[in-house]
Amino acid sequence: MAKEIERKFLVASDGWRQHADKGVRLRQAYVVTMEDRSVRVRIHGNKRARLTVKISKSALVRNEYEYDLPLEDARELLTQAIGIVIEKRRFRIPHKGFTWEVDVYEGALEGLTVAEVEMKRETDLPTLPAWLGREITGDRRYSNQALATEGLLEAQA
């Protein structure tokens, strides 16, 4: 089991693009959702797939269990999605000792761009890049689970 400790932000500008990698296309869906836990299937660039179980411990910390999944099984699970299949492109940006991930959503969520940084400890204090907007850590409206099952819900307001 791994612990996922992350902070999440809206993205205010395109300043991140000059330092980003080429990105990878992700398609993901939730096959089980509960208030504090979920089971997600994700296809990475049409090359590999993972099944992930997440159990929330707090707004900042979740227990996370990940397993490789045959690509054909993942494609079939996408057809069993609760809500929509999320489509996005993820870019990685190194910034002062941390790696930020910027998700540019496509399809039904086009226009939403979110950045997150994973930390080793809850007490880590990553330097915030200038291109970040408002912090949305713990705002469930921006969780991928809520975006898939409920849509944006005026989250950007």
From TrEMBL:
Residues 2-149 form the CYTH domain. It comes from the Bacteria. Keywords: Hydrolase. The keyword Hydrolase applies. The active site is at Y30. Its EC number is 3.6.1.25. GO terms for molecular function: inorganic triphosphate phosphatase activity. PANTHER family: SLR0698 PROTEIN. This is Adenylate cyclase. It comes from Sinorhizobium medicae.
